[in-house]
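Explain this one:

_____
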Amino acid sequence: MQRTLVLLKPDTVQRSLIGTLVSRFEQKGLKIAGLKMMNMTPALCDEHYSHMTSKPFYPAILSFMTCGPIVAIAIEGHDAVSVVRKMCGLTAESEWVSGTIRGDYARSIDNNLIHSSDSEETAKVEVARFFQDNELFTYTRSLNS
């Protein structure tokens, strides 16, 4: 089993799409190992997007990601990083495909609803950034539900 991080960005919360997006992951057979709504602080945003802080567009990312609550989700499943990335869809608007989360719900590159870890190594770091060990759960999912 593999774990990955998903962040539902402020536009997801503002548009009341939390349940819709969580449901898509569950219907795919993935398990929710941790879930919490929180405010992203500027310091947490700087840490999470450290590879972008020197970019000219970073102030807009910082402003957006701290404008309202986000939902952090630790998702578990077979090849979870890859499966979740495919479900989210590509970041570039021109490459959004119907059937993906971004293709079905995103409105612009600035309001693309969701972040997901891009590798197993990154996922481990990102899950630990947003969840303490006691906030992550292991359980058996009934295949009959």
The first helix runs from residue 10 to 14. Strands lie at 2-8, 31-38, 70-77, 114-116. The two ends are 20 Å apart (CA to CA). The chain has a mean pLDDT of 94.
